[in-house]
Amino acid sequence: MNQFNIKELNNCYTNNKNFIIENRSTQKKCCTIYFSSNGIYYPNTDEVFDAVIVKKNYFDWYKTRVKRADKHILIRDIKKTWYINGINSDLHSIQKVFEFLKDETEGFEEIITIGSSAGGFAAALFGAMLNATMAFCISPQFNLNDMINSENDKIANPIVVTMIENGEINDFIDITNIIKKAIQTQFYYFYPLQCELDVTQSKYVKNIENVYSFGFISDKHSATMNHNDIEEIINLKQNSIKKLYSKFKNKEINPDAFSKKIFIFILMTFDIKRIVKNFKFRLFVEIKTMLKFLGLYQIIKTIVKKGK
Predict the structure, then answer these.
(1) Are 183 and 210 in contact (CB under 8 A)?
(2) Beta partners for 214?
(3) Which CATH homologous superfamily contains domain 3-224?
(4) 90 close to 96: Cβ distance less than 8 angstroms
(5) What is the SS3 assignment for 127-186?
(6) What φ, ψ does residue 57 adopt, rounded to 5°?
(7) How far apart are CA 185 and CA 110, in angstroms?
(8) Segment 102-115, tens digit of pLDDT
(9) How many C-beta atoms surround the C-beta of residue 189 within 10 A?
(10) Closest by CA position to 123, among listed 79, 195, 182
(11) Is the distance from CB of 83 to CB of 121 less than 8 angstroms?
(12) Which sign, positive or negative, has the C-alpha torsion 60, 95, 175, 156?
């Protein structure tokens, strides 16, 4: 089913803000913007949309935050148009969303943007437009032409296709030049090396100086580092991320090896709460790996499900 056939879509686009703003302090040191992906609800059915958007009011990244941020802005595109159609009836274009975010981030010393897939496209685009300090982009798209190649793609993205054909969004189809010009912004780019879609997109930014690429051994779109490590890496300061990059530059990254390096950086923070939390996660991963090796993991998983 096409998302534009969902009964409540236009109502939620017109009457909902589709953003959340949380101020954690009155200081203006750090503001972080989190962009939801096109996978925010799936499949594209009335039932799923109602459960995820209408009832739960779901946003990607709600539980994964930059802890030092004084202000958090969570934003979503329920029409799944890479934010080209904006987020609601007032903020109905990229320019309108940009002006809104510019006002909300005015005066902050540090601006961080974060997103995955279509959210990664938005994190890169708006990060560049806002002169953000850092943009964390996981499996983003940099050139939307690749997303409307097949007939199925065109059927799934009619608004994007129409706007491209009418020349309405020429500046935002391929955002590599926008990224190149954003010399104040550092783009941290994470992608799976064995996913054809992501490999194609990676070529667009291969030689851009302010893009720091981390290629992971994975064939699944948006599947890069271990989930727990995503929260850790977005909480690292810029100098630590660049040190991490120097160790993995031009390498095929094993997620577990990357995870161990992240843990070293966490140990160096002397933050006991973070260290304990991370250690518990790693212990769980090791036990899970051992159970899989012994062929017991699925058996235990089935027993637990039956118990519920």
Answers:
(1) yes
(2) 190
(3) Alpha/Beta hydrolase fold, catalytic domain (3.40.50.1820)
(4) yes
(5) HHHCCCCEEEEECCCCEHHHHHCCHHHHHHCHHHHHHHHCCCCHHHHECHHHHHHCCCCE
(6) 55, 50
(7) 10
(8) 999 999 999 999 99
(9) 26
(10) 182
(11) yes
(12) positive
199, 234, 229, 40 alpha-carbon torsion, rounded to 10°: -70
Pairing of strands 110-116, 134-138: parallel
Q: What is the DSSP string of 70-119?
A: SEEEEE--TT-STTTT-SSSSS-SHHHHHHHHHHHHTT-SEEEEEEETHH
Instruction: State which H helix or E strand residue 252 sits in.
Output: strand 252-253
Of 60, 42, 150, 170, nearest to 114 (Cα)? 60
State how far the Cα of 19 lies from the Cα of 37, in Å rounded to an integer.
13
**Cα 186 from Cα 251, distance rounded (Å):** 20
The number of CA neighbours under 13 Å toward the Cβ of 237 is 4
Residue showing tokens 């096409």: 2
Residue tagged 């539980």 (tokens): 63
Tens of pLDDT, residues 223-278 = 898 888 899 899 988 998 998 999 999 999 999 888 888 877 666 555 555 555 65
Q: What are phi and psi of 268, to 5 degrees?
A: -70, -15
- Tens-place pLDDT, residues 54-101: 999 999 999 999 999 999 999 999 999 999 999 999 999 999 999 999
Chain position carrying tokens 């499949």 = 43
Q: Name the residue among 129, 137, 134, 120 with its Cα closest to residue 237.
A: 134
Rounded CA gap, 120 and 78, in Å?
15
Contact yes or no for 217/253 (Cβ under 8 A)? yes
Whether residue 226 contacts residue 203, with contact meaning beta carbons closer than 8 Å, is answered with no
Q: Supply 175's token pair.
A: 């955002």
Three-state DSSP at 284 gives helix
Inter-CA distances, 81 with 54, 154, 166, Å: 19, 12, 16
